[in-house]
Design brief:
2 copies of one chain form a homodimer. Chain A is an alpha+beta fold. Chain A has helices at residues 3-12, 61-78, 98-115, 166-175, 177-181, 187-198, 207-213, 224-235, 250-258, 262-268, 281-290, and strands spanning 31-34, 40-50, 82-93, 118-127, 132-142, 157-161, 216-220, 238-242, 274-279, 294-301, 307-310. Chain A folds into 2 domains: 3-142, 2-Layer Sandwich (60s Ribosomal Protein L30, Chain: A); 157-310, Phosphoribosyl-aminoimidazole Synthetase, Chain A, domain 2, CATH 3.90.650. The first copy, chain A, is built from 11 helices and 11 strands. In chain A, strand 3 (82-93), helix 3 and strand 4 form a beta-alpha-beta unit. In chain A, helix 2 (61-78) packs parallel to helix 3. At the A-B interface, strand 1, strand 2, helix 2, strand 3 and strand 4 of A face strand 1, strand 2, helix 2, strand 3 and strand 4 of B.
Chain lengths: 332, 332
């Protein structure tokens, strides 16, 4: 048999469970099968990561695998769904080591256990370029409960989960260490920021709350302000975010105290993989009680073209860049 | 908005129909949704193409797009299913031209019309490496009717669709023109072989016949002999192919008449995207009548480790390489 066949058998077939049964048939059939759905619908999302663009080629293979699945899980969760199964395409440079593949497969295995989904197919190809991973994730959502970007109404309350800006600061630590060297981050804080860039933690625990309460939602992947703008545009509304209410980690607070200009990086930097959920005012209190670790950060308004971020004095902040565009390299 | 956003809006959103409705919501939601399934199951397959490995970087963009979808359609058809919807990941080198993208999108549009499926999502990323396209295709199959590699029984008849070896000869024309220059192919024959490499034609018209009659099947993508071996291995049987019965185009017959050594290229070269279907003997005649353009080429036998290809005198052929492994470049 071929080298590709060996590679699949050794590293990826063990991620399908139980072996040789549906849906994946031990990856022997080029095609997986899903059971009929009755009380739910299937969600489909796909996200790709390229070395040198979305991660550093020398990041640990375990983290790269985790991130490749996590960024897809994040999309499903923000739509009110639960991850179910995925297919993986991986383009491998010629010099890839068996150890790297072993660690990558182990990272995928850990991530799929964490998020409750399984590998059901894939394709492994060789490339003369950088490593690339593309995952298509299928999720399940109760019929009729998918939450779209569209649906926010004036008066709805804007929530965000977790903390914002950590991953962008973690990336900054990698690309422009000098800037952060001026701050007095502890080594634990530095580790926190680096980890948030390396290993995003999509909020699977919020999926049901989002499905139940949100009028609109998306995951924060391209920067809080940019993604909020996208949600407002799709909903044909405007809105306001109060910067002082945006939840920050103690590491981000320390960095910001020393370097106030980092506020823009925090609000627009991306890679957060938190949930931005808009909830009707009448349900906001219930959502706040039931959803773990979410914070009110703003309000939806009438005017379609008005997206404002207010500082602590209620004055609009001027932000140069509202969303990160991955059509630039991280390794400049 | 970002460059990626513009690119999606301009080239890919028009491939979702109707715009802004389910399943794809005009590509605005990062996530598509599928309706509940009742009388069918969903098939999932994924195949990626890399420039310089699976196609030539200077192939027409229209052909590249067609091939990227066609190779996935081929997998679904060979399992007895019909293509339904797909997500596209495309990694673009920096120097890609708008014209190229326009032609690529047009090729995808033509291919999806031909195969009866639609774009429902995707991801567009930048790469410093070669162009890469990864498609995950979802197909529909009548519940319980998916045809696996496993399932062939001794005495079953082996069928193949279309003609075999054209694409491999078409590739040879590109990489080793001298070899074929010795043959007296007409320009129409040369064009036929090139076209079969550039634009595979998966046999969607055979899906229902495969679902109804086949005990096992797969698509011929890595070479007839190698893929037949895989089917036999999965089914725990052996089998025999009669080389003289393998259907050839008149171009392949001409090439073979001048260069008998090309038989190995034809039988093992790959990229055929034909259907290899194994049918119980009692149903073989009906299958032959109902299925368009299929040919009996062999029989399934008892012995698991015995895969034979017989020449016109009934003697086993010795083949050096049984399957093409894409872990080599085409542009050596």
């Amino acid at each position: 048999m071929t080298k590709e066949h060996d590679l699949i058998n050794r590293y990826f077939a063990p991620l399908c469970s139980p072996s040789e049964a549906a849906p994946a048939f031990g990856l022997l059939d080029d095609t997986a099968i899903l059971p009929p759905t009755k009380d739910h619908q299937l969600l489909v999302t796909t996200d790709a990561l390229v070395a040198g663009v979305h991660f550093f080629a020398d990041d640990p293979a375990h983290s790269i695998a985790h991130k490749a699945l996590a960024v897809n899980v994040s999309d499903i969760v923000a739509k009110g769904g639960h991850p179910d199964s995925y297919v993986l395409t991986i383009a491998l440079p010629k010099n890839i080591e068996p150890n790297w593949l072993q660690e990558f497969a182990s990272g995928l295995g850990d991530a799929q256990s964490e998020y409750g989904c399984q590998l059901i197919g894939g394709d492994t190809v060789a490339t003369s370029g950088p490593l690339m991973i593309s995952i298509t994730l299928l999720g399940k959502v109760t019929t009729g409960k998918m939450v779209r970007r569209k649906g926010a109404r004036p008066g709805d309350v804007v929530f965000v989960s977790g903390t914002i800006g950590d991953a962008a600061l973690g990336l900054l630590l990698r690309t422009n260490g000098e800037l952060l060297a001026k701050t007095t981050l502890t080594s634990r804080q530095v580790e926190h920021l680096r980890e948030r860039y390396l290993q995003p933690q999509p909020r699977v625990e919020l999926a049901a709350n989002v499905a139940t309460y949100a009028s609109a939602a998306l995951d924060v992947s391209d920067g809080l302000v940019g993604d909020f703008s996208k949600l407002c545009a799709a909903s044909h509304v405007g809105g306001t975010i109060e910067a002082a209410r945006v939840p920050l980690s103690d590491a981000a607070i320390s960095a910001l105290a020393q370097e106030p200009d980092l506020l823009e990086t925090i609000l627009t930097g991306g890679d957060d993989y938190e949930v931005l959920a808009v909830v009707p005012a009448a349900l906001a209190e219930k959502f706040e009680q039931e959803a773990v670790n979410v914070m009110r950060i703003g309000l939806i308004g009438e005017r379609q073209d008005s997206i404002k971020v207010l500082d602590a004095d209620g004055q609009p902040l001027e932000l140069a860049q509202s969303a990160y565009d991955h059509f630039g390299d991280i390794e400049r």
